[in-house]
Structure to design on (254 residues):
């Protein structure tokens, strides 16, 4: 699809990668971008001088709010599902299931609600494009951050199924698999990081050229390539990190 002059919606647009998506869309000549976040005041503060940015208060875990957003933003031809939650929780060591529920409600069910609400909107505009921001951990699980990994794996399966289901209406469905992005979410990570600007640029290039998958960096490509033999090539190192308590996110593993 062509971005100049079109209308997009970006969730989680108040900071980090979401804010960079809004900036990248503006640079590419977007007509209007509905910039969604739970706190729309933060969006207004981030983009005070560009009337192409329309702040939208939206919690994607609220189905009624998502449905209302689809009615309000019925001019949208590009949806970027960027909003997400990461609670840095293991499975067994977590005090309860609250972190896992939060991540699944946001990353999986929230993305599903957005897809269901906006699929008819996209169809009305010739199909358009739906972008799901996933992760390198869509493809493997780190026990330090286990429930987040599980939610992103579920979101990857959702994205693949949506691609098949929406192809008939002409909607391009793009899966984005970044490694560590240099944002507040990974501030404690001591590892190579890709800039959010680079992730946004690669993603919008894929939208404009009809590519269905974006594997943004060397770490993501390495993990993807390991999948046929991941139990032998990938998880022994993960096990060693876990046994030594070497959490790549810099938080306690217990």
């Amino acid at each position: 699809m062509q971005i100049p002059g079109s209308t997009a919606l970006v969730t989680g647009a108040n900071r980090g990668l979401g804010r960079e998506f809004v900036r990248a869309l503006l640079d590419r000549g977007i007509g209007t971008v509905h910039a969604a976040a739970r706190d729309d005041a933060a969006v207004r503060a981030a983009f005070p001088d560009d009337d192409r940015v329309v702040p939208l208060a939206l919690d994607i875990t609220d189905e009624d709010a998502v449905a209302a957003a689809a009615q309000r933003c019925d001019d949208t031809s590009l949806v970027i599902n960027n909003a997400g939650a990461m609670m840095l929780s293991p499975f067994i060591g977590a005090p309860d299931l609250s972190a896992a529920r939060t991540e699944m409600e946001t990353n999986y069910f929230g993305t599903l609600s957005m897809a269901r609400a906006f699929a008819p909107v996209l169809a009305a505009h010739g199909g358009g494009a739906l972008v799901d921001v996933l992760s390198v951990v869509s493809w493997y699980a780190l026990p330090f951050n286990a429930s987040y990994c599980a939610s992103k794996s579920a979101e990857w399966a959702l994205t693949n199924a949506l691609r098949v289901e929406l192809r008939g209406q002409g909607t391009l469905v793009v899966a984005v698999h970044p490694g560590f992005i240099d944002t507040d979410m990974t501030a404690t990570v001591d590892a190579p990081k890709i800039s959010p600007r680079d992730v946004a640029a690669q993603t919008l290039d894929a939208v404009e050229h009809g590519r269905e998958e974006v594997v943004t960096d060397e770490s993501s490509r390495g993990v993807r390539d390991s999948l046929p033999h991941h139990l032998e090539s990938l998880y022994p190192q993960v096990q060693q990190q876990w046994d030594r308590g070497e959490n790549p996110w810099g938080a306690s593993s217990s």
Notes: The longest strand covers residues 32-37. Residues 7-244 form a domain with the Rossmann fold fold (CATH 3.40.50.720).
